[in-house]
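User: Hi! Is it possible to get a structure for several chains at once, not just one? Here's what I have:
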Amino acid sequence: MIKIRDLKRSFIENDLEINCQNLTVDTGTTCGVCGKTASGKTLFSQVVSGVIKNYSGSIEIGMTELSSTYRKKIGYLPFKNILYNDMTLKEISVFLLSQYKVPESEFDLKLDWFSQFYDLRELVKRKISSLSGGQLQYIKYFISLIHSPSVLIIDEPFNGLGDESVDQVRSLFDEVNRKGVTILALSSHAEYLKKAAGSIRYITDGKIE
Amino acid sequence: MGKLNNMNFSVIKKDIILILRSRPALITISALLLIEAVLILYSRGIIKAESGSDISRQFSFMQNYVLIFYFPLVLVSILNLSFSLSKEMGSFLLASLIPLGESTFLRSKVYSTVILSVLLTFPFLYSGIVFCGLESFQNLSFLAATSFYLLFFSISLCTFTVYYAICFFDGDSCYEPGVKGIIGMMFFVSAFVLSSFIVYSKGLSRYYNYATGFRKDYPNLEINLMIGTGFIFLIVTRIMLRIAEKKLIRE
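Assistant: Yes, the chains can be modeled jointly so their relative placement is included. Here is the combined structure:
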């Protein structure tokens, strides 16, 4: 579950204040947050995922206040590519699994599970820099779920994906929700998000309505 | 105090991959190995031609080897900053998503640089001593003292360069250095290397006194002082690393 109350965080350089009075996403459900370009979606997603600190108000993940020790519970899929371009999917995955203290043997199991949405098995040994935008987006999904988080925060879930992929994303969200994972997805594609998310909120100039 | 980092071999492996997958870095490291091999063969030729040179000549060779030792050490630190740290900072969001990520990532940068430096410097030094027949230095106590001192210094220098980049390079553009940053780093690294070499030269001259019979005891107080100085380098730079860590976590 994600529970946000009276959240405020100012960004002087962006001339924007993130303001969320009340947002609750129940366990195993998906909430979409729609907003135009530069409405504060990325900043909001980074505050909720704990990347950006020093906010006022409260963010609860599960029943506990967000803190650095709960990074293990959060999966974050950012808009930009934060994976090492010179490494392969397998190398990055093994490295991340070791950091989350998950056995390396889980890699193949997770890869098989993920292949019901998009088959990454042929991409395992390719460097990240050699992948297309769509392939990279699926890899970002895979990586953000690799440590079995209880909350998944996605900044632009359809980035690099075509119209035909909306159903795949929807079925991925459904399957992830079935496993008890709570999803917060932020996008500028309102129609796509309405198809994929159970509930929708809007963000305008940093304010969640 | 809580656990500060989540260090394991896979982090260090990732950092070594990041350096070695960069072609300029790989070419530089290969060229370094080649230069070191040529240097060893060249000095071996000179020493053999002199059919077992005298003890003062051996000490002068050793001093040159130690001077050359610092070159790959500095170069690997620069390669780390140019080809590994900058890539890491481009992906630094990843570190802030992993438990204890910032601290782990920072320390792994130091460890991977130390591993690469040690692989490029120590074999060169030992090969020089063994293959060039510098018999005066084939003394276990001397080699142990030298190894500890240079190892402590190698760790310190690698730590210092990472600290300097985090605290004085432009963090907003993936830790790219400005002119001031480069000049400052050149100054501090030169000062570091010079002070270390002065300390080592003193240690070497004391060993010379022992090898030529002026001194009877070895290892002696002076050698302990040398290792102690190396240890002080280490402690000071560990404090610097903590400062850099706090800066990253705060950001």
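The radius of gyration of chain B is 20 Å. Chain B has a mean pLDDT of 86.

User: Great, thank you!
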